[in-house]
Amino acid sequence: MSTMAADRAETTETAGKSRWVRTLLEWGGFAAGAILVTFGIVAIVMGFNGRSTVSDSLKLEKITGTPDMTPALIAKEAKEAGLTGVALPTKSVAGLPVNSGDRARTFASYMRIHALEATGGYTYAQMGRFQAKPDTPKAQLAAGGGTDNPQWAVTDTATKQPVANGARNLWVTETALTTALNTSYMADKLGLFGIVVGVALLLSGIGFIILAFAVLHRRQVRAS
């Protein structure tokens, strides 16, 4: 009898430990699910807020696409300017307000074509810092015009300083503006990524909670 009692006591103790482990796992599953759901909601809210901030910031600049910002017209302009091997925009923003990341990127791509038209197809690195004198030797000229040698630069009569290369300065301005627009595009896409990640975390958290309830809780109910 004493042996049977000992066995029963051991069985009861084992069952108690097993029940305690199941309870711990169940609450652990609920806690993990709740944390994932919370992170998911926060990520979704932050993603929407980020995209809203991008849109609001772009609206403040009051940028509108010019009439030639269509794929057909810009292709015609690029051909007339002699531009070759240049990636042309495939979307139109003509007459449209630039109020989203996608439109900002498209507008920036048109700005690049306009800048290339103004510089004859040359980029910042291909142009000299200063406006070159008419008699400047070819060795002192940059590929895209201008010179980096102050001795062969046109001198401003008022300041006695070399005159800056206007085409190169135009490229600098264009680069600054397109960089800001492309940054808006990147921020917009990061906000979208945050929303996607948030949804994934939210669904994962709900799945954890359902799994903890369906598997562990039901087993505990049956065991009792």
General description of the model:
It is a single chain. The protein is mostly helical. Helix content is 66%, strand content 0%. Helix 1 packs antiparallel against helix 4 and helix 3 (101-119) packs antiparallel against helix 4 (166-223). The longest helix is centred in the N-terminal third of the chain and has 60 residues, at 2-61. The two termini are 26 Å apart.
Q: Segments where pLDDT lies below 50 for 5+ residues?
A: 4-10
The percent range for helix content is 55-70%
Measured by DSSP, the beta-strand proportion falls in under 5%
Computed Rg = 33 Å
Q: Topology as H/E string?
A: HHHH
Task: State the end-to-end CA separation.
Answer: 26 Å
* Large-scale geometry: elongated
Number of folding domains?
A: 2
Q: What is the SS-derived class?
A: mainly alpha
Give the total of beta strands.
0
Number of helices: 4
Describe the largest sheet: none
Rounded mean pLDDT is 87
Topology (SSEs and partners):
Layout: H1 2-61, H2 71-80, H3 101-119, H4 166-223
Helix pairs in contact: 1-4, 3-4
Quick summary:
This protein is mainly α and 224 residues long.
Feature tags:
4 helices, 2 domains, 224 residues, elongated
